[in-house]
Amino acid sequence: MKKQYVPSLFSLVPAVAMLLLMVSCDDGPVMPEYAATDAKVVYQVEGRVSGLDTWPANYTIALAAFSNEGDYALYSKPVKRLEGDKISVSFDNLPQEADRVEICVLDRIRQRISTIYELPATAFSETDADTLRINIPDVAASMFDAVQKDVFTPTCSNCHGRSNKAAAGLYLTEGKSYEALLNKPSQVAGGTLVIPGDAENSVLHQVVSSDLTTGWHYDHTKEVVNENTRRLIEQWIVEGAQK
Ligand code: HEC
Fold first, then answer.
1. Which of 76, 81, 89, 171 could form a disulfide bond with 62, CB atoms 3.0-4.6 angstroms apart?
2. Ligand 1: residues within 6 Å at CB?
3. Could you give the number of structural domains in the chain?
4. Residue at 33 is within a domain
5. In whole angstroms, how far apart are CA 144 and each of 94, 172, 235, 241?
């Protein structure tokens, strides 16, 4: 005998709960605002990135999409860490307003702390294939690599070593900066330039985060205004100032 099934309001509750669960799941792609692009291609980004172990757990190494205006990821997906320095991450849709895609370091509120590798927009061109593999070149991306690339090289090395003259004898150029800082005495302020684990008493940290230098031959407070820069240097020292 056939029994007629009449759905009562009550019997719908588990179904609605399931639906809510699925929608609230933090997978990115199921979120409705991440509208799929028309191409149904799975992009798989792979490569070797060294130094990722130096980043503490409050940072995420992710593939992320940004608009040109913002430092906050519109979309992000953590990279998979494979054996050796290998990384892999795949995705199939990006928010439409995304201008740039990067492998990068994000903080807890998905703000970009450091770019590891910027993927050219042409990497995501339409294709007939189901899967498009994108190999990125080898990158060194420890916390210290980020400090060098984001702060020392663009902001400091002009005076500190690029022209073979280094202010206060301090070289902040790539390849020289680490040895020049770690446990080395400060010529100008006394004390020590970088004491692993002790940001507060490290002269480098004081230079970028206090008014220590206002009476020096060069007032460094004009240079370092960026809060992310200050925090990156502080965290690097607190985490043990590893190379
Ligand atoms: C425009 C040139 C200039 C730039 C750019 C510059 N510095 Fe300096 N820096 C100096 C000078 C000059 C001194 C020496 C000051 C003195 O003798 O009073 C100095 C001294 C220092 C010292 C003290 C070294 C010691 O042995 O005591 C540190 C640390 C330092 N700078 C870090 C930085 C960092 C980090 C940056 C980038 C964020 C930077 N500097 C950018 C000119 C510069």
1. 76
2. 151, 155-156, 158-160, 167-168, 170, 186-189, 193, 203-204, 207-208, 216-218, 220, 223-224
3. 2
4. no
5. 30, 12, 10, 7
Domain boundary pick from 103, 119, 140: 140
User: Of 107 and 128, which is predicted with more confidence?
Assistant: 107
Nearest atom (ligand 1) to Cα of 223: 38
Task: Dump pLDDT digits (tens) for 158-201.
Answer: 999 998 899 999 999 999 999 999 999 999 999 999 999 999 99
Cβ-based neighbours of 106, under 8 Å, separated by 6 or more: 59, 60, 61, 62, 64, 73, 76, 112, 113
Band the pLDDT of 2: cuts 50, 70, 90.
Answer: very low
Residue 102 lies in a domain: yes
Which of 77, 111, 140 is a domain's end point?
140
- Residue 19 in domain: no
Structural domain harbouring 197: 143-238
- Nearest protein CA to atom 39 of ligand 1, as residue: 156
Query: How far is residue 81 from each of residues 90, 136, 146, measured CA to CA in Å?
Result: 12, 15, 19
* Whether 131 and 203 share a structural domain: no
Q: Which atom of ligand 1 is nearest to the CA of 158?
A: 5
Euclidean distance between CA atoms 235 and 212, whole angstroms: 20
Q: How far does residue 229's CA lie from ligand 1's centre (Å)? A: 16
Residue of 155, 158, 186, 188 with the most ligand 1 atoms within 8 Å of its CB, for mutation: 188
Q: Answer whether 0.85 is exceeded by the pTM.
A: no
- pLDDT of 225 reads 66
CA of 141 to the centre of ligand 1 (A): 25
